[in-house]
């Protein structure tokens, strides 16, 4: 089997490392954008919870949605870390 010249081997490794960094940067930006959107959804739900006052049905609905959002955030972070 023929080997690559040393200069070409280093350039191939450098290209692979650069591609890994770009991929990681893209994934990180994607997660950051998603977390930003989820944060605004959480803010909205917390305001709904404050506005619900004594209405237990609205409060329970808001709490269920907040719990769902918590699970979504945990899932998205786990997906990011496992890639």
UniProtKB/TrEMBL annotation:
Query: Does the keyword section mention Signal?
Result: yes
The protein's name is Putative secreted protein
- Origin superkingdom: Eukaryota
Which residues are the signal sequence here? 1-25
> Which of UniProt's keywords are assigned here?
Signal
What lineage does the source organism belong to?
Answer: Eukaryota, Metazoa, Ecdysozoa, Arthropoda, Chelicerata
């Amino acid at each position: 089997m023929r080997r690559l010249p040393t200069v070409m081997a280093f350039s191939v490794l450098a290209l692979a490392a650069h591609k890994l960094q770009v991929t990681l940067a893209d994934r990180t930006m994607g997660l950051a954008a998603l977390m930003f959107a989820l944060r605004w959804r959480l803010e909205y739900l917390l305001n709904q919870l404050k506005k619900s006052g004594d209405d237990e049905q609205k409060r329970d609905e808001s709490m269920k949605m907040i719990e769902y959002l918590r699970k979504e955030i945990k899932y998205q972070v786990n997906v990011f870390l496992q890639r």
